[in-house]
Design a protein that fits this description.
By secondary structure, the chain is an alpha/beta fold. The protein is built from 15 helices and 20 strands. Helix 4 runs parallel beside helix 5. It binds NADPH dihydro-nicotinamide-adenine-dinucleotide phosphate.
């Protein structure tokens, strides 16, 4: 046997303690939902993990009414210091159950255990701790002397970071004194329901947090409910626009965190090995199912060939396969629908004349997988340069001057994130000032921190999540 091959290092699936069935969480208890139950699938095997009860329109009404009662009677009148105790408690229990949650997230979503263990779960705990710290200091957040909660928040989240996105909504909503009704994605409802269990274990008063699994119709009912004061949505630009149209003129508050097509700009003076790591992380982290993924590499023409070689050599070393294996770099695509979308988008790249390169890594025989893929010879007009693929597919464009790099980076309807790689600080800052993106990383990529606001420009949405300024979206100031 080749002494340099990896031995399998699988984490045990039994750590997740997956139950045969799960139910919606309304008014402090798990209840039978009136909707048609759904089956959630492990995308790495396509086997059913569990049956999940879903919410009917009446359940949505009940959950919103419970959230309203809790807002008026318990959570709203409670002092910030008291609210903080609950959030700290939830954060601690979440951290204690981190191994179970990481395995459950990997089973339900398909992401590598290394990512759920090292990124999703710890970042979720960090967001809870961060916001718990704000709960009694809102008057000192610089947002006004007497910030007040909005009321009931309706949150709808996607499947790419199920637990983390749930916490991104719940933590600021609760810290600022609001109550919440959360709709997780249809294909990844499990960790949000375990989070509800954790909240109950932490003694969170009934109705403060409600979790309603279901499909888009449940999301639509939550977002459109007339007694919801604020909607926080993360997902596709199309659905975001639809929600925006429905809320227009109602006076109800809205934040939208939508798609992206981020440019990762590599100048010829960049530390190339470091930039290769950042570009690989930017697009292959979480199978490329990341709204801020660096899906367009803009590389300076003079180093394009050398950089391409280094990049391909590095991508060849990525291991695609069993998400529970601790050696896996790229896991399973979350759903058959998403896999079909990626296949179609890659075919569009071929049809438009881009040159496809695919890693030769072996793919598992079963399950939903797509190999790391790079398109070169990409023109700005091509679909692979313009549309969000949301998969492990990188489009490479070149530029000659910083001005051209900025023009190409901004030639997109989106504006969520960008990366800049250069040895020269003044060039990095010059570029960062001109790139129209909510988050700009310099000589790094995909850094997430609860103290740093995150959000987009243009079709990537509006409003910021995280940081001091993220509190503003949940307050009358
Ligand atoms: P969606 O925007 O459809 O899903 C996000 C959430 O909204 C899910 O909980 C979904 O429910 C719910 N939803 C669906 N329709 C409605 C509606 N009419 N009103 C209110 N809520 C609704 O994204 P998809 O999962 O369909 O992904 C499609 C594409 O969107 C991806 O290929 C990717 O390009 C992009 N995307 C971007 C994300 C980002 O973070 N920027 C995240 C996810 C997707 P359900 O799960 O049942 O569909």
């Amino acid at each position: 046997m080749d002494p340099w091959t990896y031995a399998p290092a699988p984490e045990s699936a039994s750590l997740a303690e997956v139950a045969p069935s799960y139910r919606p969480f309304v008014d402090g208890a798990f209840v039978d939902g009136g909707g048609e139950p759904l089956k959630t699938v492990n995308p790495a095997t396509e086997e059913v993990l569990a049956e999940v009860g879903t919410a009917s329109p009446q359940d949505v009404d009940r959950a919103v009414a419970a959230a309203r009662r809790a807002y008026e009677k318990t959570w709203g009148p409670m002092s910030g210091a008291e609210r903080a105790k609950y959030l700290f408690r939830i954060a601690r229990v979440l951290a204690e159950r981190s191994r179970e949650l990481a395995v459950l997230e990997t089973l339900d979503n398909g992401k590598p255990i290394r990512e759920s263990r090292d990124v999703d779960v710890p970042t979720a705990a960090a967001h809870l701790f961060h916001h718990a710290g704000w709960a009694d200091k809102l008057a000192f957040a610089g947002l006004g002397p007497d910030p007040r909660p909005l009321g009931v928040v309706g949150a709808v989240i996607p499947w790419n970071f199920p637990l983390l996105m749930a916490v991104w909504k719940i933590a600021p909503a609760l810290a600022t004194g609001n109550t919440i009704v959360l709709k997780p994605a249809e294909t990844t409802p499990l960790t949000a329901l375990v989070l509800a269990e954790i909240a109950a274990e932490a003694g969170l008063p009934a109705g403060v947090l409600n979790v309603l699994p279901g499909a888009g119709d449940v999301g639509s009912a939550v977002a459109g409910h007339s007694d919801v004061d604020k909607v926080a949505f993360t997902g596709s630009t199309d659905v975001g626009k639809e929600i925006g149209r429905r809320l227009a003129g109602t006076g109800r508050r809205l934040t939208l965190e939508l798609g992206g097509k981020a440019a990762n700009i590599v100048y010829d003076d960049a530390p190339l090995d470091q930039a290769v790591e950042g570009v690989v992380d930017g697009i292959f982290f979480n199978q490329g199912h990341v709204c801020c993924a660096g899906s367009r590499l803009l590389v300076q023409e003079s180093i394009a060939e050398e950089f391409g070689e280094l990049l391909r050599a590095r991508i060849e070393t990525l291991r695609v396969g069993d998400p529970l294996d601790k050696n896996t770099d790229v896991g399973a695509i979350n759903s058959r629908v998403q896999l079909d979308r990626i296949v179609d988008m890659a075919a569009a790249g071929d049809a438009e004349g881009a040159v496809r390169w695919t890693s030769s890594c072996p793919l598992p025989e079963r399950g939903l997988f797509f190999p790391p893929t790079v398109f070169t010879g990409v023109e700005q007009s091509m679909r692979v340069a313009r549309e969000e693929i949301f998969g492990p597919v990188l489009s490479v464009l070149t530029f000659r001057t910083p001005t051209e790099a900025v023009a190409k980076a901004n030639n997109t309807p989106y504006g969520l994130s960008a990366g800049i790689w250069t040895d020269k600080g003044s060039k990095a800052l010059w570029t960062a000032q001109r790139v129209r993106a909510g988050v700009v990383w310099i000589n790094t990529f995909n850094r997430f921190d609860p103290t740093a606001p995150f959000g987009g420009y243009r079709e990537s949405g509006f409003g910021r999540e995280g940081g001091r300024i993220g509190l503003d979206a949940y307050l009358h100031v």
